[in-house]
């Protein structure tokens, strides 16, 4: 195996150890009140590896040329949301700024409940 292949293989192996499903969907946190919070993150990573061979300066019996190489990697983990479970209520809380659509989705269950109550009240007011 060429030395640069060893560098690449080692880099990829270490990245596999760092990134797994628990990095994206975090470990559940149970609060004293019984609420369960699960963090969800965006994970970005990159790596670069390189190397080169140089001419021999002295005559040696080895066939391999002198080699220099290296690798570097970087990782960014940003929380994007939290899955919150309270009793029978499950909701997704976005960590980023809230949009109008996010607010409407959060309000939908309450709005539907109000509409249902309105129509149930109408049925009682006007019996058939």
Beta fraction of the residues?
A: 35-45%
Coarse shape: rod-shaped
Count of discrete alpha- or pi-helical segments spanning 4 or more residues: 3
- Radius of gyration over C-alpha positions, nearest whole angstrom: 29 Å
Q: Quickly count the domains.
A: 2
Q: Could you give the distance between the termini? A: 86 Å
Strand order of the largest sheet: 1-2-3-4
Class inferred from helices and paired strands? alpha+beta
Fraction in helix: 25-40%
Mean pLDDT: 79
How would you characterize the overall build of this protein?
This protein is an alpha+beta fold and 128 residues long. The chain has 2 domains: 3-95, no CATH class; 97-128. It has 3 helices and 4 strands. Strand 1 (29-30) and strand 2 form a beta hairpin. The radius of gyration is 29 Å and the shape is rod-shaped. The N and C termini lie far apart (86 Å).
Provide key terms for this protein.
128 residues; alpha+beta; 2 domains; 4-stranded antiparallel sheet; 3 helices; 4 strands; 36% strand; rod-shaped
Give the secondary structure arrangement, pairings included.
Elements: H1 3-18, H2 21-24, E1 29-30, E2 36-53, E3 67-86, E4 89-94, H3 100-125
Antiparallel strand pairs: 1-2, 2-3, 3-4
Briefly summarize what is shown.
The chain has helices at residues 3-18, 21-24, 100-125; strands at residues 29-30, 36-53, 67-86, 89-94.
């Amino acid at each position: 195996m060429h030395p640069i292949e060893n560098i690449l293989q080692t880099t990829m192996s270490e990245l596999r150890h760092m990134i797994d499903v628990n990095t994206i969907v975090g470990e559940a946190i149970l609060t004293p009140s019984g609420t369960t919070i699960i963090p969800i993150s965006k994970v970005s990573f990159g790596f670069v590896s390189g190397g080169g061979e140089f001419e021999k300066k002295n005559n040696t019996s080895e066939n391999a040329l002198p080699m220099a190489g290296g690798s570097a990697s970087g990782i960014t983990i940003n929380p994007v949301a939290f899955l919150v479970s309270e009793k029978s209520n499950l909701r997704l809380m976005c960590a980023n700024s809230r949009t109008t659509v996010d607010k409407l989705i959060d309000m939908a269950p309450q709005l539907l409940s109000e509409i249902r109550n309105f129509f149930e009240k109408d049925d009682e007011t006007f019996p058939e």
